[in-house]
Amino acid sequence: MIYEVIVDISNGEVDKVFDYSAPFAIPVGSRVLVPFGNRTLEGFVVGVKDSTKIKTKDIIKVLDDFLAINPEMLALTKHLNQTNNLRMVDCLRLCIPSKLRGGKVKELKKSYITLDMQKDEALKLISSRAKSQVAMLEKLYLIGGEYESVLNSEYNPSSVKALVTKGIVKRKFIKVDRTPYKGVVADKKDIELTSDQNDAIEKIMSNEGTFLLHGVTGSGKTEIYMQVIEKLLAEDKTAIMLVPEIGLTPQMMGVFRSRFGDKVGLLHSALSDGERFDEWLRLKRGEAKVALGARSAIFAPIENVGVIIIDEEHDTSYVSESNPRYFTEEIAQFRREFNNAKLILGSATPSLATYKKAISGEYTLVKLPNRVNKRELPDMEIIDMRNEVRSGNTSIFSKKLLSALETTIKKGNQAMLFVNRRGFSSFVRCQKCGYIPKCDNCDVSLTYHKDDNRLKCHYCGKEYYMLTECPVCHSASIGIGRVGTEQVVSEVQRIFPDIKVLRMDFDTTTTKDSYLEILSSFAKNEAQVLVGTQMIVKGHDFENVTLVGVLDADMSLYFSDFRSNEKTFQLITQVAGRAGRQQKQGQVLIQTYNPHHYVFDFSKNYDYEGFFEKEINIRETTKFPPFSKIVRILIKSKDEEKAMVQARICYNEMRELNRENDEIFRVKAMRAPLKKLKSEYRFQVVLWLLSEGEEKILPQIYERVANLKDKNTVMFVEINPTQMT
Predict the structure, then answer these.
(1) Per-residue pLDDT tens for 588-647?
(2) Exposure string (b/e) for 356-379, b if CB count within 10 Å is 16 or more?
(3) What residues does 585 pair with on adjacent strands?
(4) Is 640 exposed, middle or buried (0-12, 13-18, 19+ CB in 10 A)?
(5) Are 40 and 16 spatial neighbours (Cβ–Cβ below 8 Å)?
(6) What pTM was computed for the model?
(7) Among 113, 129, 8, residue whose Cα is nearest residue 63
(8) Are strands 209-215 and 342-347 parallel, antiparallel or unpaired?
(9) End-to-end CA distance of the chain
(10) Sign (positive/negative) of CA torsion 12, 16, 22, 28?
């Protein structure tokens, strides 16, 4: 038998099948150790055949006592390789914990000591002067057994060894699960389903395919997810539940554990290597039946999948923008078809592309128009910050928001303040000559962080000392730019010195437990105000929050992205949904310098359908997705001239392809908006494709780009990138 092996090297030159023989049978999907040139490498068995025309070497050994890549995941990697132009080895790596490669993580086994002799016989073998051995023996007869590490900490460490030597006790090694968020279990609640929820469950269970669960914030989508999962687990099926933010997983884990106990396995990148491996292995072995996590959990190694759920499906975090690039929903659709499963896409603000598919009948539309507590959605008011400036108010807070914040605190309620920028200020600027300090490696302004008194690049991480004077004109008049989370916290604490304020952004959530600590503290009313970025927008349910304030709401309107209006509407609607979720009425105040923009008109009325009609007409007129597909070819090099030359060659190649194919209707070449990043100069060639012609033309684009690659530049293709920076 000949085994086809992909060696574990992420390099296009060797990303192909190599033939090996073996003196023993090896299942397809196994990880193996193979001789490769003058090296020994790990690899994946991806196929078998009867013969080969080349002289083969023998596989050295199989690396695991389990099948690393099951048939479904192997079929998925081949699909991604063919349709997304991804290297096979990169796709295979997605399917296993990263530290499994190289044997960097294994099952944790601890030494456990148990008795192997009757007490009377044992005492005859121990000297009366060996008090530590006698005391240890007494404890073991009392409790039956104990971990050796615990015994060593309580008694003389040599005592265990002595008792083992005498045959009084025996040592065995038992597996210990490294369980993430151990003890995090939500209180069980008696839930009475609404008629809307019952209808939704019935519709999902009695139909097949893909469903869009379009429900307003607080309409009980999570309970529907769990009811559907419960019914499918009863049919001996499994489930995948995805949330957009790692910060949501501890909260969701508590809710799911209260319902499904140890059947839930958690997968996300913030877990320790040991935790991630143990949870992955529990899912693979069928000990856990529900895979819960962020984007990467779509690769959970479970079989016989009954349902895949993507909560907040509109969120851009479900798109992987680093190698290997993939769309989570595309993978979910593959797994749905492979298992004949259901796929549920849930959101209060679905992406335009998803909603278009739902109203056209491609997906089944399931609506939840009301909150489960029968309360109205919180009142939303748009505040014109231009009027605040005219009246002499230069604060980051409008008078209305400040008054509402004071009232909320006095009543013992809580408030959430959203600002879509971390740090103290987005930039600093010389007020005399206009100089703005930028990162040496990236073409971006540096963000001021007051806590560290540092200027930081949010792209490459490089830090700089805060300016004391302008390096150009030597003026000491240094001003700050747009507000960030750190500045908001500072201002709230200055105005309300007696309250506690929490901040939740990338800088305050650097460890796995940071999310849980901040959210738990706020849920227990240990703080009156929570300030945060997009991390606080989605999915959180705090019963005491009655006020939500959005600062600088129009900030996202001016990103160089055709989705900017859509993203702004989604952000406002989602963050507004955090207020008044239980019995108290909510209030939402939106601060903007552009109050007449149609996004705010639709937002304040929670009019998703109205916004959809307006925005989809604009997309159709301008031929932007979902009425086309945008392909970006990004060219990067540390040498600006070489990047520019390669971009010009690529542009000419794409223009030639354009002349040969009607499926391409526009080609543009330009510097990338972020023209330098991490010391690399960046150019881009952008193509617009007709949606119906993409299957024909995409392979030709991939092939031509592959032929253009050289050692001086990096080139890669992105499909409908979530941001064009």
Answers:
(1) 999 988 888 899 999 999 999 999 999 999 989 988 889 989 899 999 999 999 999 999
(2) bbbeeeebbbbbbebbbeebebbe
(3) none
(4) middle
(5) no
(6) 0.88
(7) 8
(8) parallel
(9) 50
(10) positive
